[in-house]
Amino acid sequence: MYARGLYGARNPPLNTLWATFYDPPFFSQTIARNRLKEITYFLLFDHKTERSEGLKSDKFALASFLWYPFIENSVSCYKPGVNLTIDEQFLLSKARCPFTQYIPSKLDNFGIKFWLFV
């Protein structure tokens, strides 16, 4: 799922990710199409019973169970050197969520602002 975002594939049908115009053929060499369909059929990111109480305390609650372990794993694998910098990245997003920001000076006005320490 992370790779779909990296390749700029925003919600295409899964069958198109195995098409020949994606180069390099990352998806077809990583997992079989039918196996991924089977996994995504059973994959559930949202529990309706926990949705309202989680959103009261954490705006990122619907994705936090994936995001926070990913961040912890990244931190444990990253060894910073002597040359570090802080930068911001504005990711275009048309999603209606509490953490989407409107910045009129940007070319893409709506998005999610990330602060990066690299």
Q: Write down the Rg.
A: 18 Å
Strand element count: 3
**What is the count of DSSP helices, taking H or I runs of 4+ residues?**
5
Query: What is the chain-wise order of helices and strands?
Result: HHHHHEEE
Overall mean pLDDT? 76
The portion of residues assigned to helices is 25-40%
Termini distance?
Answer: 24 Å
Strand content: 5-15%
Number of domains: 3
Q: Which descriptor suits the 3D outline?
A: globular
**Backbone structural class:** alpha+beta
Q: Report the major sheet.
A: 3 strands, antiparallel
Strand order of the largest sheet: 1-3-2
Give the low-pLDDT segments: none
Could you explain the architecture of this structure?
This protein is of the alpha+beta class. It has three domains: 1-42, no CATH class; 50-79, no CATH class; 82-117, no CATH class. A three-stranded antiparallel β-sheet has the order 1-3-2, with no helix packed on it. The mean pLDDT is 76. The longest helix has 17 residues, at 61-77. The two termini are 24 Å apart. The protein is globular, with a radius of gyration of 18 Å. The protein contains five helices and three strands.
